[in-house]
UniProtKB/TrEMBL annotation, chain B:
Residue span, Rhodanese domain: 347-438
Keyword Nucleus: no
Listed cofactors: pyridoxal 5'-phosphate
Domain of life of the organism encoding this protein: Bacteria
Pfam families: PALP, Rhodanese
Name recorded for this polypeptide: Pyridoxal-phosphate dependent enzyme
SMART domains reported for this sequence: RHOD (SM00450)
Length: 495, 439
């Protein structure tokens, strides 16, 4: 290879993609500092209006394909009350994966017809789900039978159930999929239908669905077609299914620039192969390793730049021809008189929140290594690394007048736990200037899984509080998350 | 020429000069090595045959399956060679991105296994790459596979060091070219050809072409992906340059439309990359020089690929009897009939009810007595003229009444006196509680 590197040695940035609302929020430094001064670091800031916009984005895709149906927000992505309460005023529903989430949905104003209970279910969860008549997304025959016995024992109205299927079979080329703990293999559908027949008085199957943990559209296309065929099996047995549930996994595009992501991953490969300076704490390779000069392993990172994500991903899936039946999947759904259900989590809270941390210490490691920047938060408060999402924090300096010193600088962000592994970022992060104690670093777009999914009170460090913020008359207003209702001060519903 | 086996026809491909009026280089003679003329259709025939040949007898005796990680030409060549020797062939692949090749492999009797896509909810502890899993499976006791291992097998490069490279030298009257330009896939051909050419003349300059990271060009790896290839050694190349999918197709179109070469996109990328690299050098030259690039395979499998990234290259004006030619006013004026009126009309006027939905949906539930003519077939039919007698009234039905309105408008324009669209479609029919049957 020639001496000239294909890519230069300039700082490697991964600039977050920011919609109008979060971008405006991050420009409001004084407001953000006031919040953190009052409520402490770390602090999670939520933008409830954004979730309504995102739901509209998904609805637009359904309309484009002439489909009816419903989005169920996968609540597990974020525990915020503000987001859930704001969502009640849209047409969306909620996917509750635990007793607590179901209670939260009911208490936030969701009626049972707009809730789906998913995931593994403890008896109490199933009891409350059946009592209030939400749709039960059933994992298997045991759960169906348990639900039916509850309905009979309590004399409840027939319970709407949706069958979660797995291990769909493809024809032609054999498509391998990761093994899943959840759902019933499609070849055991007959057994499920036997249970439904036994409890015809107690269970009303509304449809079938899948939830695949993959970014691959081909696997999902195979599963969707499998569901259409399964729905037909239900019809043959005399049931009247009307919905196909395509699960979640629509993805988020985290980064502003494809070129930065490509350059970063290319340079990471070079670093792992020892052809450039390390890009991370201790030369961590994010799953990549070198063996005899050849790259091995696979990049364990969320594909942070995804040109087709969220509603566009759903659009792509619906536009894709079914592997067996040939016609576009959206057309097949429509023709088969099926509604579309989906459970976006991460994609529905895209751009809905940021996490703030205060800089406590900036330490020059000497010997030309990156600086260590310690924050009043830890890696579990903003679990970007845990989820493999790499993006640059946005500095929110405390206004002291004067220009920040120096230029772009490489740092490692470390947390407040007395633990070597408490690294908020394992990679070297390039900031536009060296931060100073008291400055804030804002982690953009953390509302999906990176905000409170892993937060703990380890070492009695504070858990982040949440606030909901919105724009009104040219300035920012805020409430504690638990105090937020989609009402204005006079008690009228917010516009 | 007479052969006992088609494998004897592998190699000895032509070296064809590209007309300088096409590439515009004044001092460089540019030659295309037409590997697409190998019997199985590509450059990979050489490597496939060279890798699998030593193991064939043993594999046949032990009843083994030939296995390779390939989604393209290597799989095609191996499938044919395996079939020729009575062995099964299995191709394992991350993603078959060219559906035509996938169908062809199935037609050739190959078994295809596609590895799962990346996890959406990332598990950072799971860093086993598909290759590692694949190798673990092959190494399992009792595994009965002949794995040709194209990314690591030295016999891959050897096929080109002994064949492709010396053929180029012979065809250039015993001289090595001044430049050799090649796309990097398994790195087998570039490594092998480069070693043969350099052994003959160390001053040969080798240009490796890789895909731009965001693009997909069949048969070419991106700069990151080549790092996973055992045969890839950066020292082989004097320069490594990127080529985009658009550029590959642009090069391909020049080879197709100006050079009489039925090249696929990989050959197009090599041509584009060659001319781009050579043009500034050409301007400095005073004496004659030669350059060779490889045309890897043929274009036919990539029509879908071209349709996806450069649809205008396949553009045709819309046919006369086509819904695409309807105006919105014509569609709005299309005769339609609501569910209740339609039921009455079916009972009294006995129109022919045509259901435009797919056969799967039709089979599940439809209006009693209706005929299923799926929209794409219907579209073909009406291009040729009215498919019904004018004396037969027709009720068209689709899911929501949109498509049926378009076809009702078109048939009306074509002179049918009594064609109506079911307003709101089958969905409105169902919602009104009208009967749907399953025969």
């Amino acid at each position: 290879m020639s001496d000239a590197p294909l890519y230069g040695e300039a700082p490697l940035h991964l600039e977050p993609r920011l919609d109008r609302r979060p971008a405006a929020l991050l420009r409001s430094a004084a407001f953000l500092h006031t919040l953190v001064d009052a409520l402490g670091s770390p602090l999670n800031v939520l933008l409830p209006q954004q979730i309504a916009d995102n739901a509209e984005g998904f609805d637009a895709v359904l309309r484009r394909h002439r489909l009816t149906g419903r989005l169920y927000f996968a609540h597990k992505a974020n525990r915020s009350s503000a987001l859930v309460r704001r969502l009640t005023t849209t047409g969306a529903g909620l996917d509750a994966a635990s007793l607590g989430e179901l209670q939260h949905a009911l208490a936030s104003g969701f009626t049972a017809d707009r809730i789906m209970a998913t995931g593994p279910k403890e008896p109490e969860f199933l009891w409350l789900a059946a009592r209030c008549g939400v749709i039960v997304n059933a994992d298997g025959p045991g759960e169906l039978a348990a639900a039916a016995r509850l309905v009979r024992a309590c004399g409840l109205a027939p319970l709407r159930v949706l069958l979660r299927l797995s291990e769909f079979e493809s024809s032609g080329a054999r498509m391998l999929s990761r093994r899943s703990r959840f759902g019933t293999p499609v070849k055991e559908l007959g057994g499920l239908l036997d249970v439904l027949e036994r409890y015809r008085d107690a269970l009303e199957p509304v449809g079938v669905g899948y939830h695949l943990d993959t970014v691959g559209l081909d696997e999902k296309a195979t599963a969707l077609e499998g569901c259409l065929r399964a729905a037909d099996e239900l019809r043959i047995r005399g049931f009247r299914p009307f919905a196909v549930d395509v699960g979640g996994g629509f993805g988020v595009n985290y980064l502003a620039h494809a070129a930065q992501w490509e350059r970063y991953t290319a340079e990471l490969t070079q670093a792992v192969l020892g052809r450039r300076a390390p890009l991370s704490w201790g030369g961590y390779g994010y799953g990549l390793r070198a063996e005899n000069g050849v790259l091995r392993g696979s990049l364990g990172l969320y594909p942070a730049h995804r040109p087709v994500a969220g509603p566009a991903y759903l659009d792509e899936l619906l536009s894709r021809p079914a592997p067996g039946l040939g016609r576009p999947l959206g057309t097949l759904l429509l023709e088969s008189l099926c509604e579309l259900y989906a459970e976006p989590g991460r994609a529905l809270v895209d751009q809905c929140g940021i996490t703030l941390g205060r800089v406590v210490e900036v330490r020059d490691s000497g010997c030309g290594e990156p600086y260590l920047v310690r924050l009043a938060m830890n890696a579990r408060d903003v679990s970007l690394e845990e989820h493999g999402v790499l993006l640059d924090p946005v500095p929110v300096p405390r206004d002291r007048g004067g220009e920040p010193a120096g230029g772009a600088v490489g740092v490692h962000l470390v947390g407040n736990l007395c633990l070597e592994s408490d690294l908020i970022t394992r990679r070297t992060v390039f900031l536009p200037a060296l931060p100073r104690p008291g400055d804030l670093l804002a982690f953009a777009n953390t509302a999906g899984y990176c905000m409170d999914f892993t937060a703990t009170r380890a070492q009695q460090q504070p858990e982040a509080r949440k606030v909901a913020v919105w724009e009104e008359g040219g300035s920012w207003r805020w409430r504690l998350d638990e105090e937020y209702w989609p009402l204005d001060e006079t008690g009228e519903q917010q516009a | 020429m007479r052969y006992d086996s088609i494998t004897e026809a592998i190699g000895n491909t032509p070296l064809v000069r590209i007309d300088p009026a096409v590439h515009g280089l004044r001092h460089i003679d540019l030659y295309a090595k037409l590997e697409m003329l190998n019997p199985f259709g590509s450059l990979k025939d050489r490597a496939a045959w060279n890798m699998v040949r030593p193991g064939l007898a043993g594999a046949a005796a032990r009843g083994e399956t030939v296995v390779e990680l390939s989604s393209g030409n290597t799989a095609k060549a191996l499938a044919l060679i395996a079939g020729l020797h009575g062995l099964p062939f299995k191709s394992v692949t991350n993603r078959m991105r060219i559906p035509e090749v996938k169908d062809l492999l199935l037609l050739l009797g190959a078994e295809i296994e596609e590895l799962p896509g990346q996890s959406e909810c990332l598990d950072p502890t799971d860093t086993d790459d598909p290759l590692t899993r694949f190798h673990q499976e092959l190494a399992r006791p009792g595994s009965s596979h002949l794995h040709t291992d194209q990314y690591f097998n030295p016999l891959n490069a050897e096929a080109h060091a002994r064949g492709t490279g010396p053929e180029i030298i012979a065809d250039l009257d015993g001289r090595a070219p001044d430049w050799f330009i090649t796309c990097v896939g398994t790195a087998g051909s570039s490594t092998g050809v480069a070693s043969a050419l350099r052994a003959h003349d160390p001053s040969v300059r080798v240009v490796g072409l890789v895909g731009q990271k965001s693009d997909f060009i069949p048969g070419i790896r991106t700069l990151d992906e080549v790092q996973e290839v055992g045969l890839f050694d950066p020292a082989v190349y004097d320069t490594i340059e990127g080529v985009g999918a658009d550029e590959a197709v642009e090069g391909m179109v020049i080879l197709l439309r100006r050079c009489g070469l039925l090249s696929g996109p990989t050959g197009g990328a090599a041509y584009y990359g060659a001319v781009r690299h050579l043009r500034p050098l050409d301007e400095e030259l005073t004496e004659r020089r030669t350059a060779v690039f490889i045309v890897c395979d043929r274009v036919e499998s990539y029509l879908g690929y071209v349709r996806r990234i450069r649809p205008e290259l396949l553009g045709r004006p819309p046919a006369r009897n086509s819904v695409a030619t309807l105006t919105e006013a014509e569609v709005r004026a299309a005769p339609s009939v609501g569910v209740e009126a339609a039921r009455a009309w079916i009972a009294t006027g006995q129109p022919l009810v045509v259901d435009l939905r797919g056969p799967f949906a039709y089979g599940a539930l439809h209006i009693d007595g209706s005929v299923n003519i799926v929209d794409e077939l219907f579209d073909e039919l009406v291009r040729g003229g009215l498919p019904f007698s004018r004396s037969t009234p027709v009720l068209l039905a689709c899911p929501v009444g949109e498509q049926s309105a378009r076809y009702a408008a078109l048939l009306t324009r074509m002179g049918h006196p009594d064609v109506r669209s079911l307003a709101g479609g089958i969905i409105a029919w169902r919602d009104a509680g009208a009967p749907l049957v399953r025969d």
